[in-house]
Write a structure and sequence with these properties.
8 strands, 32% helix, globular, alpha+beta, N-acetyltransferase, 5-stranded antiparallel beta sheet, 3-stranded antiparallel beta sheet
């Protein structure tokens, strides 16, 4: 069986393996990676997140794909889909997100990977729409959203972030299947 569920020119997308735990734990302790999250992640919190990701895959058939550099086979983080569990006017929904090791930033990998995931998600899972959101300060992620053809549809206060936190205000982006078709014709 092929290791990857799908690939992009430089990335492979797969299910999580035990060997991903240590590098993902290190990412959760990297202040640059976690800059727009309320806190760094402990090893226990990282293990719990991996378990939630694996449960999401079993229940939905898709999730946050463990992502490797094809040239080396090295795990560099995740790109993929989740289902936000908090109540807002746009949930339930399918969210696309990414978290990559800071060592690979600035190479266009998040954009490349997110595009591949959008195409895979719309083709295989027929999502009506896909959303993405981040703290308003996270301009790097917001630029990825824009580069993959998403459109800003609002701002919201993230209900799981403390009201007194500078990270509570989030931008909200959305893309539909017809948006993807339009982009392919440009």
């Amino acid at each position: 069986m092929d290791k990857y569920l799908f690939t992009s020119p430089r990335l492979g997308f797969r299910h999580w393996q035990d060997s991903d735990t240590l590098p993902f734990t290190a990412m959760g302790q990297d202040a640059a990676v976690m800059q727009y999250f309320p806190q760094l992640m402990t090893a226990e919190a990282t293990a719990a997140l991996i378990m939630r990701i694996q449960t999401h895959f079993r229940e939905k058939g898709y999730g946050l794909y463990a992502t490797d550099l094809l040239s080396t086979g090295t795990f560099i983080g995740f790109i993929g889909f989740s289902t936000p569990s908090f109540p807002t006017d746009f949930t339930p929904c399918t969210e696309i997100g990414w978290r990559l090791q800071s060592a690979v930033w600035g190479q266009g990998l998040a954009t490349e990977g997110a595009r591949a995931c959008l195409e895979y998600g719309f083709r295989h899972f027929h999502f009506p729409a896909i959303y993405s959101f981040t703290a308003v300060q996270n301009q790097r992620s917001e630029k990825v959203m824009q580069k993959i053809g998403m459109h800003q549809v609002g701002l919201f206060d993230h209900p799981l972030v403390a009201a007194d936190s500078s990270l509570q205000k989030h931008v909200l982006y959305k893309i539909t299947q017809s948006d993807i078709i339009s982009l392919q014709h440009l």
